[in-house]
Amino acid sequence: MSFSKKFLSSSLLSVIDQGMLSALNLLVGALLIRMVDKNDYGLYGQLYAGGLLAGLVVDSWIAGPLTTVASAVHENTRKLLLRRYWFRQIFCTLLMGGLAFLIVEFVPAATQHANKSWLLGSVFGLYVIGNGLREYGRTVGFIQSDIQSVLRQDFVYVLAVITGLAALMFYQHIDLISVFSVLMGSSLLCALFGRERLIARTNTDSKEMDPGDLEVIVGHQDTITGHGRWAVLGVVVGWLSNYSYVYLSGAWLGLSAIADLNASRLLLMPIPLAVAAWSRVARPEAGRLIASQNWSRLNKLTLFSIAGIELVVLAYVGFLILTLPLLETYVIGSKYHGLDPLIMLWGIYFAVNAVRWIGTSWLMSGGAFRSMFFLGTVTLILVVGITSFSIPYWGSAGAIFALIFVEIFETVVVWKFIFPRLQKPLESVSVNVS
């Protein structure tokens, strides 16, 4: 199969997979919008953002750098790296789950001083652990180009969540604790389901490797660790840039404002999830192209990716505009009437974000984690400063205005300055060697 057909086939399967997860996320959000009050949904938005940060930290410490290195090494070396980092993933996930519990329970600002029980913090911590264990199986599948196993694993997860939610609706017991319990239990079940497949995909005998091979493994581990330090710092400042609006809006406008922002964003969540699906397939391929300095093919992949993703964004936003009256009636409900301007602003934000994310994915594939950290730091300063000014004047819309401005700035910097600089050292090395 040619590169284009293989990449397109893998991308299609990944989009189908992420489409299931996107539909599930929409279902969970819509259910909470309809069944709980706005303050509880606002609290859910904060917890969900916190859980996302926990997952991103583990991913950036392990999966991101591992994808960069493992995509360009021999198969036996790759399997051994994947097996060793599986155990590190478990340790880091347990650590993040415990930290999540402590923050929810003992840092009132993290939940806007909302009334909550210790059980919510416990369930949320277990949810972080379950999600982290499930994600590593997906990471291995994408690195090994085994998209079918990822699809099967996520199908089990989606089926388990839907079954759990159906049971909650049957017994009329919908609240944050029960919903996070369903998500947590489904993630753990899914991780257990994919365990045998994960063992098979990482099975190798280290005794058959000579000392030279083991030295290569140690070198790769040092590279992953070095990338991971900068990647963690970068992802934290990146998360703060993208989700500080949740906490700043809550501080100025309350949990109800967070609910409005998240309800309007929820309808557009298929866009970033589709972009994430594309990046999981594209990043290993981009890593191989960058390692081989095949810039012409990488440019073709870039143009193909930008055109495809932007077409999806435009088509989806157009569909959303046409069906918005029905969505207000049957999905978001009367409590969230009048969100049209926020939905349009989120559409603009995600259109710009998609182009920027392609460039960011290439930088991760090229190991430019340090540059991403410094860019993220500047971006964080900008978004906090602009949001602090715009929210008091324009309310919830001001938060999205700030995010759009910062995304445009970051897109220009990534494509105009950082990515061209990533190519130059490699090109100069090639000239010197020849």
TrEMBL record:
It is found in: Cell membrane. The lineage of its organism: Bacteria, Pseudomonadati, Pseudomonadota, Betaproteobacteria, Burkholderiales. It is a multi-pass membrane protein. The keyword DNA repair does not apply. This is Polysaccharide biosynthesis protein. It comes from Undibacterium jejuense. The chain crosses the membrane at residues 12-35, 47-73, 85-104, 116-133, 154-171, 177-194, 230-248, 263-281, 301-322, 342-359, 371-391, 397-418. Keywords: Cell membrane, Membrane, Transmembrane, Transmembrane helix. The keyword Transmembrane helix applies. GO terms for cellular component: plasma membrane.
